[in-house]
Amino acid sequence: MNTKRIIPCLDVKNGRVVKGVNFTGLNDVSSPVELAKYYSDCGADELVFYDITASAEGRRLFTDVLCETARTVFIPLTVGGGINTVEDFDRVLKCGADKVSVNSGAIRNPELIREASRKYGDQCVVLSADVKRLDGQFRVFAKGGREDTGLEAISWIKKGVELGAGEIVLNSIDTDGVKGGFDLEMLEAVSNAVSVPVIASGGAGKIEDFITLFETLPRVDAGLAASIFHFGEVAIPELKKALRRRGIPVREV
């Protein structure tokens, strides 16, 4: 079993970290700069920074907060929100990001994935998919879960990998913020369909949810969560100790 990664997610709106349930009802949490430093210091393997309203508001990602956040962390940083062109990749990488996450921009223009992977390498291109069950299929949503694209998720994710995405973040809208466990059915379908790393997002509520994820689906590479880390319900050092006790390999804190 490959070493598993634990990744906190900073959903940023108007320069503040927020968190809701099923992508709605957003509540203010903290400063992204302060939280990022805290996670970098306490053993997180990577960090994800999403400007969650950039696409819906039709604007570019806020770079001042991102630059300040990037300066505080010493772990890989993935950044997304309002990424529509290769120039957006360039701007975000120059702010200190290690990887760039595309979602709505790639749905509008799938060739963006190919262009970015050719210029920066596929390890730099992360395809983030916000997926919800609808009419008996896994459906891709855009603009922060606000817009049904009509795309079937598994085929879209496979296409993204073929175009050059080097990693997948699978966000289950159905389980987001509910804290009832990761969406194992959806994750299994995706991890069986692609050969690149898959990051599970949406649904973590306790340490046991991460144990269940990695023991049930050993092909899943990482578990991503937000509120349980932000509000101190799960401490990353304790989570890693628990995983290690179950024989699940993780990086030392």
Describe this structure in words.
This protein is of the alpha/beta class and 253 residues long. The chain has a single domain, classed as TIM Barrel. Helix content is 35%, strand content 28%. 48% of the residues are buried.
Topology summary:
Elements: E1 5-13, E2 16-21, E3 24-30, H1 32-41, E4 47-51, H2 63-72, E5 77-80, H3 86-94, E6 99-102, H4 104-108, H5 111-120, E7 125-134, E8 137-142, E9 147-152, H6 153-163, E10 167-172, H7 184-193, E11 198-201, H8 207-216, E12 222-225, H9 227-230, H10 236-245
Parallel strand pairs: 1-4, 1-12, 4-5, 5-6, 6-7, 7-10, 10-11, 11-12
Antiparallel strand pairs: 1-2, 2-3, 7-8, 8-9
Helix pairs in contact: 1-2
N- to C-terminal distance: 19 Å
Helix content: 25-40%
Class inferred from helices and paired strands: alpha/beta
> What is the CATH architecture annotation?
Alpha-Beta Barrel
How big is the Rg?
A: 16 Å
Spatial ordering of strands, largest sheet: 1-4-5-6-7-10-11-12
CATH homology-level superfamily: Aldolase class I
Gross geometry: globular
The stretches of 5 or more residues where confidence is low (pLDDT under 50) are none
In percent terms, what proportion of residues is strand?
25-35%
Mean pLDDT: 91
